Every structure is written in C-alpha cells, then in structure tokens.
TrEMBL record:
<feature type="domain" description="Leucine-rich repeat-containing N-terminal plant-type">
    <location>
        <begin position="23"/>
        <end position="62"/>
    </location>
</feature>
<keyword id="KW-0472">Membrane</keyword>
<keyword id="KW-0675">Receptor</keyword>
<feature type="transmembrane region" description="Helical">
    <location>
        <begin position="252"/>
        <end position="273"/>
    </location>
</feature>
<dbReference type="GO" id="GO:0016020">
    <property type="term" value="C:membrane"/>
</dbReference>
<dbReference type="Pfam" id="PF08263">
    <property type="entry name" value="LRRNT_2"/>
</dbReference>
<dbReference type="InterPro" id="IPR032675">
    <property type="entry name" value="LRR_dom_sf"/>
</dbReference>
<dbReference type="Pfam" id="PF00560">
    <property type="entry name" value="LRR_1"/>
</dbReference>
<dbReference type="InterPro" id="IPR001611">
    <property type="entry name" value="Leu-rich_rpt"/>
</dbReference>
<dbReference type="Pfam" id="PF13855">
    <property type="entry name" value="LRR_8"/>
</dbReference>
<protein>
    <recommendedName>
        <fullName>Leucine-rich repeat-containing N-terminal plant-type domain-containing protein</fullName>
    </recommendedName>
</protein>
<keyword id="KW-0732">Signal</keyword>
<keyword id="KW-0433">Leucine-rich repeat</keyword>
<dbReference type="InterPro" id="IPR013210">
    <property type="entry name" value="LRR_N_plant-typ"/>
</dbReference>
<keyword id="KW-1133">Transmembrane helix</keyword>
<dbReference type="InterPro" id="IPR046959">
    <property type="entry name" value="PRK1-6/SRF4-like"/>
</dbReference>
<keyword id="KW-0677">Repeat</keyword>
C-alpha cells in the first residue's frame, strides 16, 4: 500500500510526459510545416519511420535509430523556420540548410543547445545577430554563416563563449566593426573575407593568412597592405583613434574651407568699401563745389545787392 502511494505520483508524471512529448516523426513534420517549397521532403510522412532502415526520410542523418542531423541542402527551401519542434529531438547535433533561399533574421537555432555544428551558408539571411546569440550554444565546433547578408558587429559570444570552436566562416556578408579577440586554441579555419570589418587583426587570429581577411578595406595590420596608424595599442582604441582622425580631418577641411571663403569675402568687402569711399569722396567734392557755387552766387548777389543800395 505504501509503495503504491510512492509510485502513483511517478506514474502520473510519466503519463503526462508521454502525452506532451511528440515522436520524432511528429516533431519533424511540425518543423516541415514552417517551410515552403517542400517537394523534396515528400518522403516525410507519418506512416513511416524517420530513421527507418530501408526508407529513411530524405535529408536526415541518423544514429542508433534517432535523428542526429538535419541536412536539407540545395532544395530551394524558404519560409520562417520554426525551431521549437526541433527541441524535441534529443539526439540532434548538426543542422545544415546550405544553398536554400531562406531570408530574414537568423532563426532561433540557439534554442538547440546541444548543437555541435550549424551551416547556414548560401542563403539570404540578413540583419544583425544579437551579440549574445551563441552564449547558450557552448558545444558548437563549426559555424558557417558565409554568403548571406548578415550585418552589424560579429557577435562577441562567438569569441567569448564557444571554447570548442574549430571552424568559423563569416565570409561574404556585411559584418562591420572590429574583429573580437578570438582566443580558441582549436580554431583552425577562419574566413572573414569580403565584409566591412575595420581596425587591427586581433592577436588571437594573427596565425591566419591575409587571404582569410581579404576584401575588408578598413582592416589593417602587419599582414595586410594597410599598416595600422598606431601599432601596439588595442584594436578598440585603434578603431576609435581612426574614427577620430577622420573626424579631425574633415573638421580641418571644413575650417580651411570656411577660412578661405571668409578671406575672399573680406577682400570683396574691402574693395567694395574702398570704392564706396572713393565715390562718397567724389560726391562730397561735388557737394563742396555746389556749396562753393552757392557761396559764390550768394557773394555775387550780395555784391549786386550792395551795388543797388
Ligand atoms: C551550393 O551551390 C553551389 C552553386 O550552385 C555549388 O557549387 C555547391 O556545391 C553547393 N553546395 C552545397 C553544399 O550544396
Ligand atoms: C588577445 O588574445 C591573446 C591570446 O590569444 C592575448 O594574449 C591578448 O592579450 C589578447 N589581446 C587583447 C587586446 O585582448
Ligand atoms: C575565404 O573566402 C573567400 C571568399 O569566398 C575565398 O575567396 C577565399 O579563398 C577563402 N579563403 C580561405 C583561406 O578559405
């Protein structure tokens, strides 16, 4: 009897658990609902087993009859990816949606905290990635975001919260700002080329060749054609320094321009005033002449008046 009282709550919670959790097939189909152009995923149906021996669903990687990876590449897929059904796939470790037509902000893949690799390359994802986006994804080894339209700063969490990072591909995006100081020892592949990055290549990445940073006109460093203006100080202050230099430069140009304009104005004013003075003097002389004439004529009339008396 006492045992039954102990077991009963356990039984209740177990049934609740099974009632709430979807099978892998149900989860994957719910995920598929958020996609469009899913013709290539026609093999995904409820009456089959996703990791079934003979007819495994297309685009799945399986391990011990459980979904290990999602590899739905080059299918022309679009849509607003709903990540939440994938949380119910306990074995999911890798996702690749390379070469599709996804647009908009980066989906909430960071809710999948067990992922070891994520490949989003060759889509049209855009916008900023929140700086702490990768913080919950401490197991990531491979991050491929290349050939999209991502903008804003490189998320700092890539550099500070992923101790196992091995591959980082951010090339052909529109990332700007300075490069964080990546310090992961295992980082063996990095490509940051063709972005809008500025400042110095940080010490943590100095082992990589210049070609991994090509196509960022604002970058400087020993490896690159552009030398940094003040070597030896941190990247952040170089960038700020650089900005300030530009600022000063434009201010100088503006003040020189203003000075030149004022100078010309003063010269014009000077000549104008001089000319006006000359004309005034001339007319004053005329007035003097008139006065003299008047005085002369007065004198004459006075003489004639005197004569008449
Ligand atoms: C992506 O598409 C390009 C060009 O069509 C092709 O060269 C490349 O192999 C594709 N990559 C993948 C992983 O499908
Ligand atoms: C960057 O990381 C390296 C270790 O790889 C460290 O020695 C250096 O002090 C760091 N530099 C800055 C500016 O944080
Ligand atoms: C980095 O990416 C650029 C652009 O796709 C490519 O041209 C270059 O070869 C890549 N560099 C390395 C070292 O992979």
């Amino acid at each position: 009897m006492a045992v039954a009282w102990l077991i009963w709550p356990l039984m209740l919670s177990l049934t609740a658990h099974f009632a709430n959790s979807l099978t892998e097939a149900e989860s994957l189909l719910k995920f598929k609902e958020s996609l469009t152009n899913t013709k290539p995923l026609d093999s995904w149906t409820l009456d089959s087993d996703p990791c079934g021996g003979t007819q495994r669903w297309f685009g799945l990687l399986c391990k011990e009859h459980s979904v290990f990876g999602l590899k739905i590449e080059q299918m022309g897929l679009t849509g607003n990816i709903d990540v939440s059904p994938l949380i119910d796939l306990p074995g999911l470790r890798t996702i690749s949606i390379i070469n599709n037509s996804f647009t908009g902000k980066i989906p909430e893949f960071n809710r999948l905290t067990s992922l070891k690799s994520i490949y989003l390359s060759n889509n049209r994802f855009s916008g900023d990635i929140p700086s702490d986006y990768f913080t919950p994804m401490g197991k990531l080894k491979k991050v491929w975001l290349s050939n999209n339209e991502f903008s804003g700063h490189i998320p700092i969490s890539l550099a500070t919260t992923l101790p196992k990072l091995r591959e980082l591909h951010l090339e052909n995006n529109q990332f700007n700002g300075i490069i964080p100081n990546f310090t992961q020892r295992n980082l063996v592949h990095v490509n940051l080329s063709n972005n809008r990055l500025t400042g110095e290549i940080p010490p943590g990445l100095s082992k990589f060749k210049a070609s991994n940073f090509a196509g960022n006109p604002g970058l400087c460093g020993a490896k690159l054609a552009a030398t940094c203006t003040q070597p030896g100080i941190s990247t952040a202050s170089i960038s700020i320094d650089g900005d300030m230099k530009d600022d000063y430069k434009s201010k100088y140009y503006i003040s020189f321009g203003t000075l030149g304009f004022l100078f010309i104005l003063i010269i014009i004013l000077f000549f104008y005033l001089k000319r006006r003075k000359m004309m005034q003097r001339a007319s004053e002389q005329d007035n003097d002449d008139d006065d003299q004439e008047i005085q002369v004529s007065k004198a004459i009339s006075l003489v004639s008046m005197l004569k008449n008396i």
